[in-house]
UniProtKB/TrEMBL annotation:
Compartments (UniProt record): Cell envelope
Chain spans, region Disordered: 10-47
Gene3D superfamilies reported in the protein's UniProt record: 3.40.50.2300
Family stated for the protein in its record: Belongs to the bacterial solute-binding protein 2 family.
Domain of life: Bacteria
Pfam families: Peripla_BP_4
Principal location: other
Taxonomy of the source species: Bacteria, Bacillati, Bacillota, Bacilli, Bacillales
Protein name (Swiss-Prot/TrEMBL): Substrate-binding domain-containing protein
Gene Ontology, cellular component aspect: cell envelope
């Protein structure tokens, strides 16, 4: 139910009481416009029920499902209504979902863009409809930054650098180090930035070289498939696998075992996300390190949306804090991991 209650009016919260979705006419419950609202839209009581549209990337990884749950729980636990759309990793599905949120006159759109580019038109439509857009997890590469309120997510370049720094510390002085890379979804912020951060570090060490690099689209199945191809063409010359997420690393570990090599011994395995599956692989001695990327920022996102709609200023960029975990910590930490 879409309800506008101007904070300035001190309007009755009960107005938000009706639950079901009445569709396009739902703005019938709008309270009177006193003319005191700003151009940007009306400010709202913190306790007011909001309708929030969430356009999620898909369900490609353990990270993603943890992020979806965190966001869904946070929105509904705060008493807001969620309209959820899974894009199945396709940009056109996200554009459709955002258009549908606009048509339904949601109060806010949370948007986790599959890729960085190509969203100008639809985001302009949201802006014209005065619906604020909150970027979740992944950034966009769009010049006009008035098309979104803020970007809450991880620093992917930093994650790539952490992976690179761990590796050079671990293997410096070992002669030639041949690295194969499993990239995330082509054109996505984490794939672009995790590559860049990692390369920034290893490019300073001439004995470290990325010999093969291909996308595994952030999934186990593709990670396995691409690793199989890497092994087939150059099996005995691979020292390190750098995977842009743990799911691809886990798929690749299977491929390495099937090929007859020992993951983490014959080939050093680096992943990103720090999902449970990576801790299990590390505890089993099959993976060396995972760089944390925390997906549990649903509550933080809801707080930001509420603050913004209540008229408070929010920073343009909010980073999620995270760490890095190695094999020797895995057994102890595994029971405490939440995703
Ligand atoms: O690392 C990967 C997922 O955008 C940070 O997307 C996210 C990435 C995450 O599929 O597992």
């Amino acid at each position: 139910m879409f309800v506008l209650v101007l904070a300035a009016c001190g309007s009755d919260e009960e107005a938000a009481g009706t639950d079901g979705d009445t569709g396009a006419d739902s703005d019938a419950t709008e309270t009177e416009d006193t003319g005191s609202d700003t151009e940007e839209g009306d400010s709202k009581e913190a306790s007011e029920k909001l309708v929030i549209g969430f356009s999620q990337v898909g369900a490609e990884s353990e990270w993603r499902t943890a992020n979806t749950t965190s966001m869904q729980d946070a929105i509904t636990d705060a008493g807001h209504e969620l309209k959820f759309s899974d894009a199945q990793q396709k940009q056109e599905n996200q554009i459709k979902a955002i258009r549908s949120f606009i048509a339904q006159k949601v109060d806010a759109i949370v948007f986790s863009p599959v890729v960085e580019t190509g969203f100008e038109t639809v985001l302009q439509e949201a802006k014209d409809a005065k619906i604020p857009v909150f970027l979740s997890d992944r950034a966009v590469d769009i010049e006009d930054d008035s098309l979104w309120v803020t970007f809450l997510g991880s620093d992917f370049i930093e994650e790539g650098k952490k992976a690179g720094n761990w590796l050079v510390e671990e293997m410096e002085g070992e002669g030639e180090v041949n690295i194969v890379e499993l990239q995330g979804t082509v054109g996505s912020a984490p794939a672009i930035d995790r590559k860049e951060g990692f390369e920034q570090i290893i490019s300073e060490y001439p004995n470290f070289e990325i010999t093969k690099s291909q996308t595994g689209d952030f999934t186990r199945a593709k990670g396995k498939e691409v690793m199989e191809a890497f092994l087939k063409s150059d099996g005995d010359n691979i020292d390190v696998l750098y995977a842009h997420n743990d799911d691809m690393a886990i798929g690749a570990i299977q491929a390495i075992e099937e090929y007859g090599l020992k993951p983490a011994e014959d080939i050093v395995i680096i992943g990103v996300d720090a999902v449970k599956g990576a801790f299990e692989a590390m505890a089993a001695g099959k993976m060396n390190v995972t760089i944390e990327c925390n997906p549990l920022f649903g509550p933080q996102m809801v707080e930001i949306i509420e603050q913004y709609l209540a008229g408070e200023e929010v920073p343009k960029r909010i980073a999620v804090e995270e760490s890095m975990y190695t094999m020797d910590q895995a057994e102890e930490l595994l029971p405490t991991r939440q995703y």
